[in-house]
Amino acid sequence: MRQTFEVKGGPAIGKSNLPLLREQMKAQNLDAFYIPHEDAYQNEYLPAAFDRLTWVTGFTGSAGAAMILQKSAVVFVDGRYTLQAAKQLDSSLFERADLTTLGPFKWLAKQDLNGKRIGVDLQLVNQKAFEDLSSAAKRAGCEVIAVDINPIDAAWTDQPPEPREIVVPHALEYAGEAHASKRTRVGKLLDEVKADAVIITSPASIAWLFNIRGGDVQCSPLPLGRAILHKNGEAELFLHPDKVTDALTSHLDNVEVRPISQLSARFEKLKGKTVSLDPNLASAWFFKALNDVGANIVLQNDPSALPRACKNETEIKGSQNAHRRDGAAIVRFLRWLDSGEVQSGKVNEIQAAQQLEMRREELQGLKDLSFETISGAGSNGAHCHYRVNEDTVKTLERGTLYLVDSGGQYLDGTTDITRTVAIGEPTQEMKERYTIVLKGHIALARLRFPAGTSGHAIDAIARAPMWALGLDYEHGTGHGVGSYLGVHEGPQRIAKAVNNVALEPGMIVSNEPGYYKEDGYGIRIENLQFVTQPRDILGGDIQMMEFEALTLAPLCSRLIERGLLTPDEWIWVDRYHQRVLKELTPLLTGDDLEWLKNACKEL
How many domains, the chain? Predict the structure, then answer.
């Protein structure tokens, strides 16, 4: 199996390791230390060697931060992890606070820490975060100290080694554009800020720009490295030598591949040059290092990010093919969930996750999962990002809901799908809540919008049916998705938080409204979809774009309260199911196909 279910995190970790950190802080004359969740590459999913926040606190969520003082500590988490943090953090050691509304810097600004020293590892915070930290520290009366040695690393005596997985070429048949073309295209974008070069710090951008993939990060085929791209398209790629093979150097025939240990020394060549850095991605260390060598820094969003997000025709076609195969695996799994074995209430969350992974493995093209499966039965489904383990595992009991959020990594695409299924007979409330979530999903799926529309501008459309009933959910409505890259990819997203990045043709985003009843159940319906090319609307004045679904799997008809749907919504469900049946029929046989035909019957 590609995932394990052993217990990770928990209060005992904080109780054991927090004192060790404080000893190292004292040795470095630090009164406080700031710990972001991210590593030096600003990864969301971390290699074990870089999972410092978990080592100190026991909290395993994919977003968060902590402020550690000598006699107190605060851990900041967002709404997705409120319930999880309550279970994993020792309340006698850690205060919990909201990451979104308060956050570590607003919290710090309100403290009286006159004359105190707060440490930070410049490798782990982007420049924007470092500036916010410095501003907050000034208001609190304390001094920010850039540490030479991270006190966590000094205390973490059994810290795993950094990953050094082989970096491999990503074939043109999947990428759709040669890396030389990409480098030339992105290099021209430096003219916008009159830059001579850009430091590419994002592993996802490096993977896309050079048409390479790696294995340094679980569930994401990312190579950890750095690159310098010059405005003429010439580039230097910095990787650990253990990751480099003859096949890679042949693929990168006109790119200088250098040991990552030479990165700082190569900065000397940028003296007097104008260098582009993204303050939201590049760590503060890069800003200091380039300033020290006399480079002129200009701020610019990662010029690779937007081209990477707008998938070309080859990538869209590949994603469609990947989702078609993935959909066949999902149907086989959903049929199993509908069987007497499961509906009798004797199967647990781990067994269900294993069954789903097995169905994907049978495809023979699975490279990895795109994230650890969220397999939530009953009240566990109310934890948005629940991770099942041997301590928390529940049985899929009759009269409950089962929420499963999962995905696969394939050479031609990345998938991410959530379905909520009734085990036994659902209650009327469950059916009504499911249908309200479905109405929000349909509203977004059917939307037309003009050029220049951001995800922030349309988030409320998916929430409107819920808001009308005084309901909401504490996560975004949609995130970007890569092409055999990260399952969470920017710069586009659909969320309450302000994001002015316009949705453009070829962008892949999720559509995933939800509802979560604490100690009760969770509901989420998620499809991936891509933005179409703009087209004329009969009788309209301007062209409009739309979303086209990539995900192909039936909804749970037993949970749909038909009387709450409008005729247009009925039609959408029926047409979606007709498409699912048509596209998946060639991939299914026997009982699987018969089950699908029944699941896709018209409302």
Answer: 3
